[in-house]
Every structure is written in C-alpha cells, then in structure tokens.
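Work Package 4 report. The design task specified in the project plan requires that, given a folded chain encoded as structure tokens, an amino acid be chosen for each position. We show below one input record used in the internal validation round.
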C-alpha cells in the first residue's frame, strides 16, 4: 500500500485508538490472570506498546511513573540483546540503572516478530510489548520490599537485568527460581512471583496477537507509518501547550532536608522547553534517590497533562523537551544508590516542583503514603490517597491518588480475607486542605488493627514540610503516622519508620491535604 508523508486525520484517530486499545486489552488479561492483591485488586501495573527502536507508541491509562520510564527498559534490552532476540522470547527487567523505577516494579518485555508478510522476511523485531507489575515481595531487608531505611539497592531486593524469562516459548522456571533465591535477601514467596510473571507473559502475548492482527488487516507499512504519525501528533500537541507557557523556577524542600531545584526555560521560536534540575541535592545516603528514568517520567507526565487533546502518552511528547539532570544528584543517582522511595515519593515532589515553577497549581499531598506490612507468610503493600491541589480555576479533590500513582486501594473485604488485619476506619480528614480562592482537597485517616504480630513499614513525605500553596493560597496540612498500642499508649512515628506490631495494635496514617491557590477574597 502507498503511504503518504502526511497522515489522514480520520485514520490517525483510528490508529491512535487502536494502539491504545491493544495496551488496554493487555491490562485486562494481566488483571484477570494475576494472583497478587497488588495487581489484581490495586491495579498497580502498566501495559504499553513500543516501536522497533523501543520508543513508546501508546499505553493504557495505567500508572504514570511506569509509563514514562518503561521505554528506557525496552531500549536497554534493544541495546544489550539486539543480536540474540528471537521469536518466543520474553525478558525480565527491574534494574533502576537501566530504565527501571524500583525493584518491586518488574517489567516483562516481549519482542514482536512477524515471520514473513507480503513475501518480505523480517529478521528483527518490528515492535515490542511490555507489562510492568508491582510484585508483593521481591526480597530485601523488609517484607514487601519497600524498606524505609535501605541505603544500597541490594537491600531493596533482587535485581533483574534483561533476564531471559521465556526462551523460544519455553518458560525457564528453574532459572528464574534460582535467581529469586540466590541473593543475600531472597524473595519470600517465589510461587507468587512466578504466578505474576506468567500473568505478564499472558498479557504480552495478547498484545503480540493484536498487533499481528492489525498488521494482517492494514499492512506493515501502514501500521509502522501511523506509529510515527501518532508520535508526531503527540509532539505537535505538546509544542502547542508549551507555546503559551512562561519561564519559571522553583525550589522544593523535603522532610529529609533534601531539595529539588528546577528551572523551566521556554523557547517560543521553536515552541520547546528546557527543564534544568541543576542545584538539586546530591545523591542521598537514604533511598529517596529517583532513577533518571523516573525523573524523565515525571517531566513527561507534567507536560502531557498540559495538553487538552486526546493523545496517548508517548515518546513524541518528549521531543520538544530538553531535560538537564546532573549525574550524581538525587534525580540521576549512580549505582549502588538505594532508590525505593525515589520512585514513589521523589517522583511526586518532582511533579509538584514543576507545576510550581510553571505557576499552574499548588502542591498536592506530594506523597504516596507507602504502607507495607508482613512476615514470612504474608506480605502486603498499599499506597494511600490524600488531598490534591487547587489550581488556577479549580478546587482540589478530597481523598484521591494524585499524579504519579493511579492505583486503587484494596477493598476492605479482600484485605481482611487475605491478611490477619482489621480495617477499623477509613475516613476523610476534615480541614486538612489549604484554604484559598480555590481550596486544596482533604487528606484521609486510615486505621488498621493487627490481629497477629507483624513488621509494618511506612515510607511517606510531608510529615514535616506542608504541601505548598500558590499565589497566596495556604499550605495543606502535614500528614501524621502513629501507633495506638493495645495498652492505650500512643507512639508518634517519623516520615519513614519500621515498627513491630503486636496483636491488637493499631497503625494510624493521616495523609496530607493539598495546597490552596490564590488569596481568599
């Protein structure tokens, strides 16, 4: 079929939705076949399709911090294994220094080969499909693999660096089990890991089948041309959004005394922007370092949200952006820096710092309130909602997951059936949002009673520094973590803490409110 250099507008819309539809189908398969609460109930996963060079084409509306960074993982596979990729192979990766986010987020990547079409042989992959799922436990020094006080990546769990998971259609279970156990801090439930890996393989297989159907219907040239057109359309949409922005800068202080500094410079002549993180704190001895892929994902997310058009988040969105992240700072750390909180906490602060620099909206709760608990038998992880920020012409929202997280909370019935805990209460936290012409949303209060002894961990932010207000709006209220012991004694906890819970103890998490925007008239 003859392909023009300009896309047909109707076809562009069809293909844009087709690519996204494939990623959504992958997500449905993953949710239906996974066994862990993290993937099946909380939907802490993402699926996407990529072009032959590993650049993101389209994704389902899953977890923003996954989607903006997955392309780095796929491209690392292309660079490392391009000569050995074969039909029927699937690879596993979670390396934070090769496109990963943090170790529990494990990505399964499947190269898509088309043996022969229209009498043409294709010896290299024409596409890639990938699914990233948050494992309930991947080893490390605490159950749930979200240790509050790790200071090397090894303490956070097991690292996969393009490990061959399926070889020409054969699942390498023995090799994978060996990898899960051969570690200073091995995985606690390899059977659950294996089950979720198989679900990711199934999700990728659905993506592969749907792409092959698409090629059979439209022809390879058309499918590949429209991948480029969809990316170019996203690029143009972001350039239009940039054209109305103004230069700005912002310094964002965190509870741990680290700071993120960002300067945004708009170049009207070619409708591009430079985002410069020079002045940000150096790599930390804590685990709040964000891998470079996470920092890029946060930038990509912010600029995608500025676009009114219905476009899939993809590699085209990054083309108008020059991102400067000094090597060795907390947003571009070097191995073996710990990173588990960088993905969940620092990513949120990058987003708020960028919105602050652009003057668009105040700070949201700025944390995911990561709560894990477990022992050798049980491991559980959840992120907890809070207040979102107010903006130029809107109030914040009460009790939502904001920005870089888009997961659900486990239903109380499922939580209490699968784990020996009782959800005592879960309510809004009145007056925790910052007041302003437009007010920030309220946080929540979550109380979980333990019915048997376990280790609990909280990894959170904005327990000391309040989410900022903008243009005269008030800051949101800081969060609070504390324990009510069975004997009535209350213990206050820091932003990050590991604590032994005994039968009858209650862990209480009060999440921050969002900042207000504009002065109260």
């Amino acid at each position: 079929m003859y392909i023009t250099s300009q896309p047909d507008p109707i076809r562009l819309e069809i293909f844009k939705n087709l690519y996204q539809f494939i990623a959504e189908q992958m997500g449905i398969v993953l949710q239906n076949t996974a066994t862990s609460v993290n993937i099946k109930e909380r939907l802490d996963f993402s699926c996407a399709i990529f072009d032959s060079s590993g650049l993101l084409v389209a994704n389902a509306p899953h977890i923003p911090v996954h989607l903006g960074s997955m392309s780095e993982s796929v491209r690392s596979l292309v660079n490392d294994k391009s000569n050995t990729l074969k039909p029927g192979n699937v690879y596993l990766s979670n390396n934070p220094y090769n496109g990963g986010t943090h170790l529990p987020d494990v990505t399964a990547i499947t190269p898509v080969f088309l043996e022969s079409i229209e009498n043409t042989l294709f010896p290299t992959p024409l596409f890639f499909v990938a699914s990233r799922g948050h494992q309930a436990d991947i080893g490390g020094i605490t159950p749930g693999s979200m240790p509050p006080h790790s200071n090397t990546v090894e303490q956070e769990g097991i690292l996969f660096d393009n490990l061959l998971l399926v070889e020409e259609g054969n699942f390498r279970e023995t090799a994978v089990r060996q990898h899960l156990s051969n570690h200073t801090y091995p995985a606690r439930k390899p059977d659950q890991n294996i089950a979720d890996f198989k679900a990711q393989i199934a999700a990728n297989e659905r993506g592969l089948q749907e792409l092959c159907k698409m090629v059979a219907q439209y022809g390879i040239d058309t499918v590949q041309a429209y991948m480029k057109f969809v990316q170019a359309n996203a690029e143009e949409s972001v350039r239009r959004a940039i054209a109305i922005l103004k230069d700005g800068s912002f310094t964002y202080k965190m509870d741990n005394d680290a700071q993120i500094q960002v300067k945004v410079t708009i170049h009207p002549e070619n409708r591009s922007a430079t985002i410069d993180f020079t002045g940000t704190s150096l790599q930390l001895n804590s685990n709040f370092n964000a891998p470079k892929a996470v920092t890029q994902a946060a930038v990509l997310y912010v600029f995608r949200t500025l676009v009114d058009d219905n476009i899939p988040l993809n590699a085209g969105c990054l083309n108008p952006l020059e991102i400067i992240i000094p090597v060795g700072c907390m947003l571009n750390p070097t191995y073996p820096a710990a990173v588990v909180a960088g993905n969940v906490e620092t990513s949120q602060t990058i987003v708020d710092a960028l919105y602050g620099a652009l003057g668009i909206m105040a700070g949201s709760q700025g944390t995911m309130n990561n709560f894990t608990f477990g022992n050798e038998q049980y491991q559980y992880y959840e992120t907890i909602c809070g207040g979102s920020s107010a903006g130029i012409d809107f109030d914040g929202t009460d009790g939502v997951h904001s920005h870089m997280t888009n997961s659900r909370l486990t239903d109380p019935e499922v939580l209490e059936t699968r784990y020996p805990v009782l959800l005592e209460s879960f309510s809004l936290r009145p007056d925790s949002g910052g007041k302003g012409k437009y007010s920030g949303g309220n946080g929540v209060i979550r109380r979980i009673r333990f019915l048997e002894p376990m280790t609990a961990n909280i990894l959170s932010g904005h327990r000391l520094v309040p989410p900022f207000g903008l243009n005269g709006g008030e800051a949101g209220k800081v969060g609070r973590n504390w324990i009510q012991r069975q004997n009535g004694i209350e213990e206050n906890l820091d932003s990050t803490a590991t604590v032994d819970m005994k039968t009858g103890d209650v862990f209480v998490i009060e999440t921050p409110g969002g900042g207000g925007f504009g002065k109260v008239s």
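The mean pLDDT is 93. Validation will be extended to a larger panel in the next phase.
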